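Dataset card, provenance and construction

Sequences and ligand SMILES were collected as paired inputs. For each pair, a complete structure of the chain with the small molecule in place was predicted and serialized as structure tokens. The example below shows a pair involving nicotinamide-adenine-dinucleotide. Curators did not alter the output after generation; any descriptive sentences attached to a record were derived from the structure itself.
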Amino acid sequence: MIALVSGASGGIGSAVCERLADDGYTVVGLDAEIDVTSSAQVESFVDHVETSGPITALVNAAGVLRTGRAVDLSDAEWADTLAVNASGVFHVSRAVARRMIPRHSGAIVTVASNAAKTARQNMAAYAASKAAATVFTKCLGLELAEFGIRCNVVAPGSTDTPMLTGLWDGSDAIRTSVEGAPGAYRVGIPLGRVASPSDVAEAVAFLLSDRAAHITMQDLTVDGGACLGV
Ligand SMILES: NC(=O)c1ccc[n+]([C@@H]2O[C@H](COP(=O)([O-])OP(=O)(O)OC[C@H]3O[C@@H](n4cnc5c(N)ncnc54)[C@H](O)[C@@H]3O)[C@@H](O)[C@H]2O)c1
């Protein structure tokens, strides 16, 4: 059982790798040394991984966050965000799904974001990229259902990783997330804390497992209630 995890060196990706290893997977990580924005690099890496056995699970966790008011975003900020968060998911999922189809088995989880469904200030490019990744993953799930391959989305809210702590100084980013910011039309987190990477990894592991055998094209939000159930 080989699981391929993109963004494997990141906060959530590394927690996913550990969690899947506990489930008995041989975990292969993919991070900055293979650029998910390059379909050629992704194809040859997936080819290489498959020489050691079939990839049975894929987790798309690579991502970037570029913040800024929509009207101030540069062409490059917009393009880079879409390239990693949307096209990257497409490249890796396509490469792996093409190999899963003849085997009639496999499961894919894309780590998107609760920002894909709730408007956030300064996150237009990020949210748009995550919405694209979310709907792409659901459409893929529809096309792969006849082959017994399930595709789901985990949508984290604020999670204690470098992506969140890099927003401001660490403690402020976490406190602001928990308390909310009324001036930014942002409610806090009803469960009273940001997610740990393992909270997200648990949801990923569940959706990849046989315990989720009849679940596909779903979007599981792991945000402590920050989007009030939307
Ligand atoms: N941390 C949060 O609050 C939060 C909330 C919602 C969603 N997410 C999503 O969860 C996923 C993991 O985020 P994280 O918090 O662990 O962030 P992180 O910055 O710790 O990890 C992201 C990883 O993606 C890798 N990466 C970036 N661009 C890449 C590229 N072009 N090719 C290959 N790898 C690349 C980075 O090297 C990094 O290791 C991301 O998709 C992120 O958007 C995070």
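Derived descriptions for this record:
Residues 117 and 230 are 7 Å apart (CA to CA).
The two ends are 34 Å apart (CA to CA).
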